[in-house]
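Morning, I've got a small favour to ask if you have a moment. I've dropped the whole record in just underneath, so have a look.
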Amino acid sequence: MSTRRPHREGHTGLLSAGQIWSKLFRLCGLDAHRIWQEAGAASPVSEDPNTRVPLHFLDAAVLLAASRISNPAWALNMAQCWHPGNLGVLGHAWLASSTLRTGLTRLDRYWKIVTTRAAVQLLESDAGLRFVYRLPTENPVISAVFPDGVFSVLMDMCRVNSGDRMNPLQVTLRRPQPADNSPWINCFGCPVFFGAPENSMTFSGADLDRVLPTANRPLAGTLDRLLLETLSALDRDDIESRCKAAVLNELSTGEPAAPDIAQKLNLSGRTLQRRLAAVNTSYLKLVDETRRDLALRYIADRDKSVSEITFLLGFSGQSAFTRAFRRWTGRTPTEFRQQAR
């Protein structure tokens, strides 16, 4: 696939995610190399996991494939084609998540790394947690095929972590009602509603909060750091992610001062505060949130002592860390560990 620099206004996606589509094309009996070639791109292969490409190449390839496949549910087969590596660091962070809720939260937070066009959102409801997938397009084929593919992969990701029998409570799709809805019922294992206002999957709290056998909180914390750095580099206008990434790099030397972080971001202190205020946060709040997130990951790693965590988070002393941790969780670090045990 071509990796030429896209126009500034064009949307991009991870090149490695395109490999999932290549496998899907082949699974449906198509010549994937020829599809990409006709779409104006080379096959999606790169040694750099962060390589990005304009999404209009992917759209063109999907439209060509859809015109040659008679099965309207063909994109549901994408569940058989994905690998964690296709999603870069985010795929491995998903596998290391302690619960499905934590994993879905990571998808919500870092989705822009996979694609800058579609957006996802997590919404709490009486029924459970709703994962909403929004794709801004007027093309009826793209708007039908992409949610099918994304939701089938997401469903398989959940089952890889929690077990084959895990199903959502319901799925809603904007695509029109098909003549035969059994492929969707069989894929998701729950009621599926077509012609809906949104593309969404609703999960039960019991499934979301069950501790997963694949959980690895220390590893997930390390991967989160990489994801945050990638996100901040991807979107230079995302001041919150850029600031958090800078704070993460400085915490172990003590609480970083706002002017120092502003200088690292090539901003004045006043500009940094103004831009953070524009996204409804502040420097002090951002530092506190960053410390809290790290503290919860570090405290799950029993190889790290409380005094070591105090140092890593840049607190002046253990008593200061304990006060902050009690404010975040209502318990001291030791009490929290004992309860978790």
User: Anything to note?
Assistant: The chain has two domains: 12-208, 236-340.
